[in-house]
Amino acid sequence: MNIQIKATNLKLTPSIRDYVEEKVNNLGKFIKATEAEVELAKDKHHRTGDVYRAEVMLMVGGKLMRADVEATDVYAAIDLVIPKLKEQISKFKDKRTTLERRGARSAKRKI
Known about the structure:
Order of helices and strands: EHEEEH
Number of domains: 1
Number of strands: 4
Structural class: alpha+beta
Radius of gyration: 18 Å
CATH superfamily: Ribosome hibernation promotion factor-like
Mean pLDDT: 88
CATH class: Alpha Beta
Largest sheet: 4 strands, mixed
Strand content: 25-35%
Strand order of the largest sheet: 1-2-3-4
Distance between the termini: 41 Å
């Protein structure tokens, strides 16, 4: 999988890069994705302190899956965005399976 990581207002350290690559590559167990774009940003928010945002866009067979999360720590933001993507992947796979079964049923009725 091709992973592109972009950091905005944040220094992208090798440890953060490795952490992101490990988490995004683990999504490969669930579905075969061709490309992933990850954006990590440090925002000055209306709340006190720094707010980190993690946004992941995953290309799966021409379909784009996107999730973003805000947290007080960059690692926490990365950890929170992964379950959102897993949920989208699960829904995508369930829908695909349902459509395949529906098509098989209609083909069986025609025979």
